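hiii so um. not sure if this is the right channel but i have a protein structure encoded as tokens and i wanna go backwards to a sequence. like what aa goes where. can anyone help
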């Protein structure tokens, strides 16, 4: 039987050719994007008026938040030490002055590093767990049983994880960013003798950095359960299908985080950096000279 199926697959590949394979891959990507968008819209629809199991939200918040605390703190702590140590090495080659090391590191941490790196770490644990749990329910026909009871799986399975992820992602990233900053401060003090009073400098952090960082936390917190839940619901086959769904969840969630990072960072640059510069250069020359004094 396996030999017969393999022969059919080779015959189909020979009929399609390279262009056909690329077209089929493009169509699969298009259909997958449409289904993912459908899951996202239905999740938003059931967020408030939906009917879900009592205590499901708190249980998911505990699973995503409390059980990820040690993992994320350890990871972000070591990453913070590495970043500060390497940044100090590069700064020492150019200007041996570490006065702004803490301020620059804090700005990058608030604007991008804490949210992006923390979300990628959550994708490996939370995303894989969501896909594996929902995928197992699909292959054991529990999801079909929900549909036969006139219950939407999106409402009962995705929405509690979506709400829990939105809340706990923000909390976890704020906590892990604090751990990364404190670990960086200790590293700067031990490796480069930077006093804590000098390192704890928030002069470069403004409202734009906070807005961009918070926007990334919200976007990542929404993307992780949506993409992972879609991968779990699209599971087929037995245990091998659950394994493939878990792998696809981690990969697709990581890609979604990177793409969202690009667009949010670009929008933040246009809103908080490029627009004030354009307004400044649009002023007459005499006014600009007065402002530069």
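sure thing!! here u go:
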């Amino acid at each position: 039987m396996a030999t017969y199926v393999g022969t059919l697959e080779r015959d189909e590949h020979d009929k399609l050719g390279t262009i056909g394979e690329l077209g089929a891959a493009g169509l699969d990507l298009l259909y997958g994007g449409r289904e993912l968008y459908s899951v996202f819209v239905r999740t938003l629809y059931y967020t408030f008026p939906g009917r879900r199991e009592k205590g499901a939200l708190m249980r998911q918040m505990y699973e995503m938040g409390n059980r990820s605390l040690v993992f994320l703190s350890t990871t972000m702590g070591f990453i913070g030490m590495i970043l500060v140590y390497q940044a100090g090495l590069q700064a020492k080659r150019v200007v041996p002055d570490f006065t702004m090391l803490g301020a620059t590191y804090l700005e990058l941490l608030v604007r991008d590093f804490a949210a992006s790196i923390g979300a990628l770490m959550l994708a490996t644990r939370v995303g894989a767990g969501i896909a594996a749990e929902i995928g197992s329910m699909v292959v054991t026909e529990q999801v079909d049983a929900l549909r036969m009871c006139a219950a939407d799986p999106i409402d009962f399975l995705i929405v509690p994880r979506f709400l829990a992820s939105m809340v706990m992602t923000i909390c976890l990233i704020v906590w892990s960013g604090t751990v990364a900053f404190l670990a960086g401060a200790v590293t700067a003090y031990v490796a480069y003798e930077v006093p804590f009073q000098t390192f704890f400098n928030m002069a470069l952090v403004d409202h734009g950095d906070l807005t961009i960082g918070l926007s990334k936390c919200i976007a990542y917190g929404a993307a992780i359960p949506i993409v992972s839940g879609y991968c779990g619901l699209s599971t087929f086959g037995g245990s091998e299908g659950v394994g493939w769904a878990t792998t696809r969840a981690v990969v697709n969630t990581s890609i979604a985080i990177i793409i969202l990072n690009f667009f949010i960072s670009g929008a933040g640059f246009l809103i908080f950096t490029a627009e004030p510069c354009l307004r400044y250069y649009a002023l007459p020359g005499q006014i600009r000279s007065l402002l530069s004094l």
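oh and Residues 55-291 form one domain.
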